[in-house]
Write a structure and sequence with these properties.
alpha/beta, Inosine-uridine Nucleoside N-ribohydrolase, Chain A, 9-stranded mixed sheet, 9 strands, globular
Length: 313
Amino acid sequence: MLTEPTQFFQKPIFHDHDGSVDDYIALINLLTLDQYRLTGISVSNANHNIDSAVETTLRLLDLFCRKDIQVAKSNETPIHAFPDKWQEQLKNINRIDLLSGFTNNPSRISPLEAADFTAEKILAEEDKTTVILTGPAANIAKTFRKYPEVKPKIEKILWMAGAFLADGNVKAPDHDGSSEWNIYWNPQAASEVFESGVPIYLFPLDVCRELPVDNYLMYQLEHCKTQLCQLVHMLLEPKYASHKRYYMFDVLPSIYLSKPDLFKFENSSVKVELRGTSMGNLYRSSLGGKIKYAKTVDEEAFYDFLIERLKQF
């Protein structure tokens, strides 16, 4: 079991995720950052069955002795559901040796629905909160609709979503493949968040695909004997063993928090296609919401930083 959280001034952050392997690695990294304080976590029923995803989240919090953090469930439903096979691939995650021994304590599940919980946690902070969004935008969009006073209390949203030059990862009937799933899950919600006026730092598929789960990363994790290295190796092993390309995806915004110099950003204005065979496609438009998006990342330094963080615990 890991040590109690450090007691000194820390910037507030809030994590909104949807329960994939890279979401959990992002959460692990967030929990190691001394300069930030995680105020709460909301979970969407997207990439993973929501009850199982909440269970994994609670086990990770128990690993870090973080009994002070609550988790809330979103009741938002998709316009386009994630593929069933993606949820199937995650069904055994709570049986991983380094997770199964930790507590899944339902008393730490908030009675509030995720949008209400998100607003409560952000509005309770004196300082502005940074939101790390590693799933669809439906929960944040609902929060903005119900509680518009939340918007000025957000420093920025760091969101893994969208694609520009890269092809998307949506393979669906009557779709041209240009979209990315975190937007395609609910394109209207994504559009609302982009047009909210809240500063958004986007990590699209283009830059994510510079960071594959490859031999180098798996070797480094396997030969690093700390508990967190071993856990991240176990989380990634099924993806790596399937011989299909997998990337660090949702880990990127969590690493950016403490190592922003690893990324180069460009400014743009974007809109979301809300109809037709390109629904969910993110495209540049002078009429769209203003964002910064990660254009490149230092691959070697990214992996080195992640491994060094995991070695500390």
